[in-house]
Specification:
Length: 201
């Protein structure tokens, strides 16, 4: 994951009214915390930060440019308005080069399992520990040609060098089962119809 430079301003006003004014000015209220330091209340440029999240994901590492210096930060929480879909607030974690951090990484499934099978995906993200400057954008899992009866657990995933699995190793990621036949599906429908008829009588 590449490092992104972003201008940041320190906020001196707090509360809902101040946050609304910050957003009206085209900026996003944010808080930077970590390493035992006092939290810093910031304003980030809204369009630039939205582009960073879109291009680098929610684990983006930012070089925050302040007056008089820079801070390295990991994006921890992005709060989005549930209806209008704009970014309302951001939590940032202060990090250092070489530091290990725990993050949620998207799991991307590729390929098609064997013919006549049905795929069930239990996990869409996994938690790993990684160098803050080398967080993978995603973890890929190929299920091309996988046979019915196959179960893939978190411990079966291939992680990038230096990454450590934090998610329970026994957690089920995907299961490939035999797809029900047309006769079985018709049988289920017939059973359901017979049950409804019995209830009605």
């Amino acid at each position: 994951m590449s490092e992104v430079r972003l201008a940041a301003e320190q906020r001196t006003e707090f509360g809902k009214g101040a946050a609304r004014r910050t957003r009206r000015a085209g900026k996003i209220p944010a808080v930077l915390y970590g390493h035992g330091s006092d939290p810093k209340h910031l304003a980030l440029p809204a369009l630039e930060f939205a582009r960073v999240v879109r291009e680098h994901g929610q684990n983006a590492v930012l070089t925050l440019a302040f007056e008089g210096g820079n801070e390295l930060a990991l994006t921890k929480t992005v709060t989005t308005h549930p209806i209008k879909n704009y970014i309302e607030h951001v939590d940032l974690l202060l990090v250092q080069r070489g530091e290990k951090v725990t993050v949620e990484v998207p799991l991307v499934i590729s390929g098609e399992p064997a013919s006549g099978t049905l795929l069930t995906q239990d996990l869409s993200t996994i938690q790993i520990e990684s160098d803050a400057m080398n967080i993978p954008d995603q973890i890929e899992l190929s299920i091309a040609g996988v046979a019915a009866g196959t179960q893939i657990h978190a411990s079966d995933l291939t992680l990038p060098d230096g990454a450590v699995l934090i998610t329970d190793a026994d957690a089920l990621v995907v299961a490939v089962n035999e797809a029900p036949s047309a006769a079985q599906l018709e049988g289920d429908d017939t059973g359901a119809e017979a049950s409804e008829a019995t209830e009605e009588s």
